[in-house]
Amino acid sequence: MTAPFRALSPNLIEDINGTHTFTFEMKTTYVDNMTGETYDNPFIQYLFNERKIKVKWYNQWYDLIIKKC
Q1: How far apart are the C-alpha atoms of 69 and 25, rounded to whole Å?
Q2: For residue 32, what are the CA distances in angstroms to 3, 21, 27, 44, 56?
Q3: Which domain holds residue 41?
Q4: Is residue 57 one of the residues assigned to a domain?
Q5: Do the beta carbons of residue 66 and residue 23 sit within 8 Å?
Q6: What confidence category does residue 60 fall into, taking pLDDT thresholds of 50, 70 and 90?
Q7: 38 inside domain
Q8: What are phi and psi of 57, to 5 degrees?
Q9: Within a domain: residue 3?
Q10: What is each CA distance from 30 to 8, 49, 64, in whole angstroms?
Q11: 37, part of any domain
Q12: What angle do CA 46, 47, 49 make, to 5 degrees?
């Protein structure tokens, strides 16, 4: 994703037991490059503990559950 409100520094780790850990950073606000104005990140409201997310990592899809925000 190239949007200014995207996840930053994504990292997917496959553990020895076959589980996956995905970490990333996400800013609560972003600056629109066209207008220079600051906006709230529209994705933040959807990220909370026990939420199921779908992640595409190197052309493979993963179904993950958020365990810690």
Answers
A1: 10
A2: 10, 31, 13, 17, 25
A3: 8-65
A4: yes
A5: no
A6: very high
A7: yes
A8: -130, 115
A9: no
A10: 12, 23, 25
A11: yes
A12: 125
Pull the structure tokens for residue 21. Answer: 């850990």
Q: Which amino acid is at 8?
A: L
Q: Over the stretch 33-51, which tens digit does the pLDDT of each residue have?
A: 889 999 999 999 999 999 9
Query: CB of 55 within 8 A of CB of 12?
Result: yes
CA 58, 25, 3: angle at the middle one, nearest 5? 70
Strand, helix or coil for residue 34: coil
Q: Which residue bears the tokens 């052309």?
A: 59
Residue found by looking up tokens 């779908």 in the block: 54
Other CB atoms within a 10 A radius of the CB of residue 38 amount to 9
Tell me how many domains the chain contains.
1
Nearest CA among 57, 49, 51 for reference residue 7: 57
Identify the pLDDT of residue 37: 94
Amino acid symbol at 56 = K
